[in-house]
Specification:
This protein has six helices and 14 strands. By secondary structure, it is α+β, with helices and mostly antiparallel strands. It has one domain: 3-Layer(aba) Sandwich (Extracellular Endonuclease, Chain A).
Length: 282
Amino acid sequence: MKKHLFICLAAVFFLVGCQKQEGKVPLKGGNCGDLVAGGFPKNNFEIRDSRFICHKNNYALNYNPTTRTPMWVVERLKKENVEKELSHLHRVEFRQDPLILKARSSKLEDFDIKYGYLMLPLASPFNFPGSHSGFSKSHYLSNVVAQSPGQRAVWINLEKNVRNWAVMHGELFVITGPLFFKNEPKEWIGAGAGSRTNNNKEKVAVPTHMYKVIIIPSKVSAIAFLIPNKNVNPSDLYKKVVSIESLEKEANINFFPTLEPSQAEQLRKTFDPNLWTMHNFQ
């Protein structure tokens, strides 16, 4: 069964191309399909004017113009890439994604320090140490959510563990996104914040949580984290592990839509703690 699943996953991984695309999320592999393990995540709800964006060879995302945040971001991390030296850590400004209409994008002033949040790129710039393009494009505002300063340390700890797992296992597929508990943001910030007029148009929704799903294709194993967007002790990272099934229900997303149901269930339930040794990176 495992062998059959791995062959199926490999077909998804390697038999699809990767071209720049915007618009609807491909039903199967499609463009940027080599960035996903079981198809692009499928939202079990409709978002008006949502936009799929493929930043070739780096990451892909589905953008929600209502919350002005990504719904999810997908990446493929390889050992040989994350081990490269950080050779281009020059200053890169956060800026609007050229594939998002300016009228539907968040703006730099939406993340003004007066609102009390940090800018969190869901596809981390540090995942692209050998790619100037990836490092630069990770600063697009379409990849950014508002992060509580108290969550920063535990999130950095998680990201460093993810890169460490990529080195350990050779390759990972990663899905990262914001979560709005009970479909309600923590609050709205940005243009017109403080006013509830116009249904919060031109404002940015602050997530209540952030999640990350990590898959080791060679081991057919996955792990998921759900971290509140508030003060969290970075040493408590292991306490934020959740089942993929429960996360899918909470986020209302199917993370493996193109796999056969039995195969997807096996991936959800195949968990070996020995594959996911966690370190406290401080």
